[in-house]
Amino acid sequence: MSSEAYIGVDVSKDLLDVKVLPSNESQQFSNDDPGIKKFIAFVKKIDPQLIVFESTGGLEMLAVSSLMVKHLPVVVINPRQVRDFAKATGRLAKTDSIDADTIARFARDIRPEVRPIKDEHTQFLSALNARRRQIVDMLVAEKNRLYTAPKSNKKNIQKHILWLERSLADINKDIDKTIKKSPTWRENDIILQSFKGVGPVVSATLLCDLPELGTLNRKKIAALVGVAPLNCDSGRFRGRRRIKGGRSNVRRKLYMAAVASLRHNPMIKDFYERLIDAGKPPKLALTACMRKILTILNAMMKNRTYWITTC
After folding, report:
1. How many whole angstroms from its chain centre is CA 26?
2. I want to staple 103 with a disulfide (CB 3.0 to 4.6 A). Which of 8, 86, 145, 227 is the partner?
3. Is residue 240 helix, strand or coil?
4. Within its chain, how far is the Cα of 197 from the centroid?
5. What is the 3-state secondary structure (H, E, C) of 114-170?
6. DSSP character for 2?
7. Is the confidence at residue 4, as pLDDT, over 50?
8. Cβ 50 vs Cβ 21: under 8 Å
9. Nearest to residue 52, comparing CAs of 92, 111, 2, 1?
């Protein structure tokens, strides 16, 4: 079959609904090991140009990982992109088979770029890092509740806070051990943390949630994370440039890195102060610092250099 074939896959807990364009062939496979083996055999016969999945919170990862092992061109995209594409093309109905067809059309018309996808070990680290975020969110919520809680509830909330703090300490240890087990991760972690302002949490987030770091140019990595200013112009109107989209979790950690860098990294502090002196609002200046930090870290990872040796 033609190598210009495009495959869209809609994933549910039990099934993979598959659509192939331009042949319009539809197939359905079970979302388990036997079903995915049949799916891979089916894909190999087609030899497609691109296979596109929607991100579904992890339900797609078994199939995606299996395709990666076979060196097949697979991409996982944000479901919002597919829904926007469907609305733009007037496809408002939604079923699994319709979604698979829409994803295949998206693959054929948009042709998203194939990027590195997390391997099994990175997925494990991502799961630990995600759990850490959940615990931190719960800690913040419980500490906020403590201020307004009636006296009868305070003791229970304090116990829960202590338990969450112990859990946070344990999961931090697990993340540290997981990184140290891998020579590559350990080296990358040392490179990232050599930058003044990047600590263990920021480093772990970049390792597991931004595998493209060091493989893209500065403009692409900034756009991917969502710290590149986007134009908002129409006719004679010139709107304020704003950041939008991207990977919000990475962006939040870069914000913390920028705040820390203002205290501990003279280069970022000087850069921030120059922007403020030029009349830039503090929030805009801090966002520019985030972008600069990301650009520096991207170059450090690409060239395998440490901050100590670059300044």
Report:
1. 30
2. 8
3. coil
4. 21
5. CCCCCCHHHHHHHHHHHHHHHHHHHHHHHHHHHHHCCHHHHHHHHHHHHHHHHHHHH
6. -
7. yes
8. no
9. 111
Q: What is the DSSP string of 5-72?
A: -EEEEEE-SSEEEEEEETTTEEEEEESSHHHHHHHHHHHHHH--SEEEEE--TTTTHHHHHHHHHTT-
The pLDDT of 109-124, averaged and rounded, is 80
Length of the chain: 311
With the CA atoms of 49, 55, 59 and 62 taken in that order, what torsion angle do they form, in degrees rounded to the nearest 10?
A: 40
Q: Tokens 């120059």 correspond to what residue? A: 274
Tell me the average pLDDT of the chain. 89
In this prediction the pTM is 0.75
The predicted pLDDT at position 126 comes to: 87
Cα–Cα distances (Å) from 45 to 2, 20, 42, 161, in that order, read 10, 12, 5, 55
User: Order of strands, edge to edge, in the sheet holding 50-54?
Assistant: 25-30, 15-21, 6-11, 50-54, 74-77
Contact 212, 302 (CB under 8 A): no
Strand partners, 9: 18, 53
**Pairing state of beta strands 237-238 and 233-234?**
antiparallel
Closest CA to 53 of 9, 96, 85, 92: 9
Pairing of the two strands 6-11 and 50-54: parallel
pLDDT digits (tens, 9 = 90+) for 16-60: 999 999 999 999 999 999 999 999 999 999 989 999 998 887 788
